[in-house]
């Protein structure tokens, strides 16, 4: 669905009204902006966020330092348009950017996640966070919406995690921490210069959380990484990294309404309503990447190569997944930047090709060995031990793409980004299904036998963005961008007829960066055709299908103000109105399925209103503090819009820290007032409610020694 001209004018008037207020009042003469951040995520070149014609949020190194960083949630929460929470409190995160990622039952879908320019996301747009060391993060950039040059087959934008460079000459450190619920944290970074032009850095992290406020909720991970960097002459560098991770994660089940009521009173979850009481993921991962950068006159070459191999034991609903062989993902980005002139004005051409492949041979699924059966149905598991072999699958997903973007400076005020990337995604899946878990009968039945799925998707992603500098501190921007969202392999296996969703974004906004203040305001229309929707059938079954059309509209605003004596105030707000324009939901009753029209309903789990406020203080004596509060408004719990959940109000987190010389002590307290609420509530088509508890009050006391 195309945005109408009257609607776009309405959005323009809204932003103009916002400009007429704070912008004109604050436009006094300023020194060079001090609250500015550089971004490389939207354009693949370093540029002040004020001049990027797209909604960009940057989580600074100062903010990262104030967070305990056990999970990416610790850094991302409070970002307008970004919904993030964790069921376990370990590495897992439920991450949604402007509605993208909503369909993911676990992991991250529809959002490109990168680390130092290297994709963490598989070619099918699925991201695991188990091998990202959250203790080794310098800053995080969030580029919202489709059309991003980095985002291959992902409509939600990109999350770019930037780690500490091997060439960073700041002091190394060792950090130890302990907290309630059995939390332990250890991190070490040690580096050295091998020669005048070479550097080596070692990182080690160990994190443990018993999370004994809830059953089946333990998490622990061990990560070891080595980075090497070499300066080759005066105009080239070569950086290489190798890491190994082991991550064990128990995934707690949901609660019924009665069980959740008990949790609200006591802050403890002693049982789950789900039959599958031993879900989890236990993984081992090797990760390698190398990147070369060389300036040759007007051209800068930036080729990258990356390789990941992983294996896991993954009990989930109905079946246990196990990879007999290592799953391998490898790829390369061959990228170049050409600095030139157009009409006598400076311009930059960024272009390159992408080749990536994911290979999984002999992946197996097993029945649960130890189950309780009542009335012919499986009603509980007693362990996560595997039983009889259910299926064997081999798959290959190949992605090839080209990208190009011209950035043109028309004058001292006007800048245009015109870009396009086109990717081709090819799925080849061969399966021998011996048995299956039948959701209708609640037990294991005969499988479908041998099958082959072959699907190809072409994924164009054009973008046109314009930035206009009103003054030394303030810029306007407008952008029109589009992307195709590729289905994940598990979704295609569930429904081979799935089409790639088409997401188109129309957005206007204003950004200001001054010495003592910064703010961002943007309004967007985001119609989506063939959006991939999750339908939650009874007994835990998720069915994936394309909705006809979805209409997403939103307004986002954030700002920060620096005050005397080291104080800083900030706030953020997001309004999200996401509705199905055309959508028919299949509802299963027993063995029969009826299609029910949901057109006009709101998407579940997305609150209309999201708020965040914070106050931070840093003193020359070494003391620092930060207090923030987040609100997640009311939302519908199903596609039928039959019921709402109230969300949560002003859940508060606190940091108290002190630094003297080489010593740093910090206390992080999350959920200070010990609110007992659900981080997610959902209802299946039979009317069954599932509550997933958020963590009660937790604290982590950390000591860091810099050397």
UniProtKB/TrEMBL annotation:
- Where it mainly occurs, coarsely classed, is membrane
A Gene Ontology MF term for this entry?
Answer: siderophore uptake transmembrane transporter activity
Q: Which residues form the TonB-dependent receptor-like beta-barrel domain?
A: 258-672
Query: What is this protein's name?
Result: TonB-dependent receptor
Protein localization: Cell outer membrane
Q: What topology in the membrane does the UniProt record assign? A: Multi-pass membrane protein
- What range does the record give for the signal peptide? 1-28
Superkingdom of source = Bacteria
Kindly indicate whether the keyword Transferase belongs to this entry: no
So what family is this one in? Belongs to the TonB-dependent receptor family.
Q: What GO terms fall under cellular component here?
A: cell outer membrane
């Amino acid at each position: 669905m195309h945005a109408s001209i009257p609607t776009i004018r309405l959005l323009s008037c809204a932003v103009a009204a916002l400009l007429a207020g704070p912008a004109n009042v604050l436009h006094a003469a300023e020194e060079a902006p001090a609250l500015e951040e550089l971004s490389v995520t939207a354009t693949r070149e370093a540029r002040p966020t004020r001049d990027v014609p797209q909604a960009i949020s940057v989580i600074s190194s100062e903010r990262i330092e104030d967070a305990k960083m056990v999970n990416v949630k610790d850094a991302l929460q409070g970002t307008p348009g970004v919904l993030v929470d964790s069921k376990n409190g370990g590495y897992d995160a439920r991450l949604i950017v402007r509605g993208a990622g909503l369909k993911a039952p676990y992991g991250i879908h529809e959002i490109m996640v990168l680390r130092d320019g290297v994709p963490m996301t598989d070619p099918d747009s699925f991201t695991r966070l188990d091998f990202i060391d959250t203790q080794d993060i310098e800053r995080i950039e969030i580029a919202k919406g489709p059309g991003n040059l980095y985002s291959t087959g992902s409509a939600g934008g990109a999350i770019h995690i930037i780690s500490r460079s091997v060439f960073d000459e700041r002091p190394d450190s060792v950090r130890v921490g302990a907290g309630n619920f059995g939390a332990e944290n250890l991190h070490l970074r040690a580096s050295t210069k091998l020669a005048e032009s070479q550097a080596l850095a070692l990182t080690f992290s160990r994190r443990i959380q018993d999370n004994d406020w809830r059953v089946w909720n333990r998490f622990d991970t061990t990560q070891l990484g080595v980075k090497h960097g070499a300066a080759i002459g005066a105009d080239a560098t070569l950086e290489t990294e190798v890491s190994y991770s082991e991550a064990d994660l128990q995934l707690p089940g949901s609660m019924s309404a009665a069980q959740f009521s008990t949790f609200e009173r006591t802050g403890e979850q002693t049982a789950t309503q789900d039959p599958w009481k031993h879900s989890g993921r236990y993984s081992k991962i090797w990760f390698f990447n190398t990147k070369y950068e060389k300036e040759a006159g007007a051209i800068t070459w930036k080729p990258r190569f990356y390789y990941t191999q992983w294996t896991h034991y993954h009990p989930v609903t109905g079946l246990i997944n196990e990879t007999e062989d290592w799953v391998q993902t490898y790829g390369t980005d061959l990228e170049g930047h050409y600095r030139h002139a157009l009409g006598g004005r400076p311009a930059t051409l960024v272009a390159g090709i992408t080749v990536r492949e994911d290979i999984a041979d002999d992946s197996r699924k097993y029945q649960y060995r130890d189950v309780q059966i009542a009335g012919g149905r499986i009603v509980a598991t007693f362990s996560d031990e595997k039983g009889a072999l259910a299926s064997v699958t081999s798959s290959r997903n190949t992605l090839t793409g080209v990208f190009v973007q011209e950035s043109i400076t028309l004058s001292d005020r006007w800048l245009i980004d015109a870009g396009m990337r086109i990717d081709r995604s090819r799925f080849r899946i061969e399966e021998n299904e011996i048995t299956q878990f039948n959701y209708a009968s609640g037990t294991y039945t005969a499988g479908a036998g041998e099958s082959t799925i072959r699907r190809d998707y072409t994924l164009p992603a054009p973008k046109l963005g314009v930035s206009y500098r009103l003054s030394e501190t303030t810029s306007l921007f407008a952008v029109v961008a589009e992307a195709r969202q590729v289905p994940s392999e598990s979704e295609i296996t569930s429904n081979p007829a799935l089409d790639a969703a088409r997401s188109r974004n129309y957005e206007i906004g204003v950004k200001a960066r001054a010495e003592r203040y910064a703010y961002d305001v943007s309004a967007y229309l985001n119609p989506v055709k063939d959006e991939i929707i999750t339908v939650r059938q009874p007994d835990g079954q998720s069915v994936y299908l394309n909705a006809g059309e979805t209409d997403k509209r939103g307004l986002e605003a954030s700002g920060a103000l620096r005050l005397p004596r080291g104080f800083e105030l900030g706030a953020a707000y997001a309004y999200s109105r996401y509705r199905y324009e055309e959508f028919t939901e299949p509802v299963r009753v027993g063995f029969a399925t009826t299609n029910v029209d949901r057109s006009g309903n709101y998407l579940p789990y997305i609150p209309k209103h999201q708020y965040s406020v914070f106050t931070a203080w840093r003193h020359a004596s070494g003391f620092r503090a930060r207090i923030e509060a987040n609100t997640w408004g009311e939302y519908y719990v199903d596609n039928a819009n039959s019921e709402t959940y109230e969300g949560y109000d002003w859940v508060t987190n606190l940091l108290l820290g002190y630094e003297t010389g080489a010593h740093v002590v910090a206390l992080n307290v999350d959920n200070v007032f010990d609110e007992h609420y659900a981080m997610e509530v959902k209802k299946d088509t039979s009317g069954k409610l599932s509550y997933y508890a958020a963590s009660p009050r937790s604290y982590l006391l950390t000591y860091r020694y810099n050397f």
